[in-house]
Amino acid sequence: MNNSGSTGGTQSMRRALGLLRVLAQHQEEGIDLQGVMAETGLERSTAHRLLACLLEEQFAERDAKTRRYRLGVDSMQLGFAALRRTPLLDALRPFAQKLARLSGDTVFLVIRQGDYALCLLREAGSFPVKVFTIDQGERRLLGVGAGGLALMATLPDEEIAALYARHSASYAQIGASSAALMKSVRQARASGYSEIVDTITPGVSGVGVAFRVSELTWVAFSFGAISSRLDAPRRAQMGALLHAECQAWAHDYLEK
After folding, report:
1. Does 185 fall in a domain?
2. 24, 118, 214, 227: least surrounded by Cβ within 10 Å?
3. Residues 95 and 74 in one domain
4. Quick one: 45 exposed, middle or buried, by C-beta within 10 A (0-12, 13-18, 19+)?
5. From the record, what ranges are coiled-coil (predicted)?
């Protein structure tokens, strides 16, 4: 049996999937053809042919003014469909329930979606006063909320600066200056967990930890509680607990 056609088809598929990953990494600012060639190692004709196919099938789009490429509508629809039921989400759900039992507080799971953090799960703990500051399926800018701040802390400083510039008006509305965000980011990097105190919802505090679940994907868990329950000593205690639990879970998951 001649496998040359199969091999060629597999190679084309791998190239197309690699190209989609590159577009995903540059979803906010877009990427031009030269950038695609540099990051994928594809020749100009091959990169152009694959991009043309993705454009035709609406898995990519190109800005007419900047000539930069991004993921298209159909790529996003696949992503949204996958988030409704995935092996990753199935694996994370019992872990979220465990964290809720350990802490007694509300547990939130968010995933990075471009400049935003999308809430995938929310689990209530046993403490009588519940904190539901974000609903499943809702998204917020990175840096807003403990989970979003933990995700922001994984980014290079220059990327954070560019992100802030793109959404400066929205950050200003919640009183988040660039300097204040960077201070919180540096604290999160140093301690291993993020902290928010009365910044989004008065009387509510939280701690968050981000970790990688694939080459491109970061998620974050956070605890949320009323500030009188989550005071400074308990934030340190719960931040350390969350960091240890998330690191252990991620290690086991990535080793499978």
Report:
1. yes
2. 214
3. no
4. exposed
5. none
Are 139 and 117 within 8 A, CB to CB? Answer: yes
When divided into structural domains, the chain yields a total of 2
Q: Give the residues across from 112 on adjacent strands.
A: 117
Which 3 state secondary structure label does DSSP give 22?
A: helix
Measured between alpha carbons, how far is 41 from 57 in angstroms, rounded to an integer?
Answer: 23
Q: What angle do CA 17, 114, 31 make, to 5 degrees?
A: 55
SS3 sequence of 119-152: EEEEECCCCCCCCCCCCCCCEEECCCCHHHHHHH
The residue behind tokens 């505090």 is 205
**99 and 64 fall within a common domain:** no
Query: Is 141 inside a domain boundary?
Result: yes
226 burial via Cβ count (<10 Å: 0-12, 13-18, 19+): middle
pLDDT tens-place string over residues 101-156: 999 999 999 998 888 898 999 999 999 998 888 888 888 899 999 999 999 999 99
Q: Are 121 and 224 in contact (CB under 8 A)?
A: no
Task: Return the amino acid letter for 109.
Answer: L
Tell me the CATH number at 200: 3.30.450.40
81 — pLDDT class (breaks 50, 70, 90): low
Both 250 and 176 in a single domain?
A: yes
Looking at the structure, tell me whether residues 95 and 110 fall in a common domain.
yes
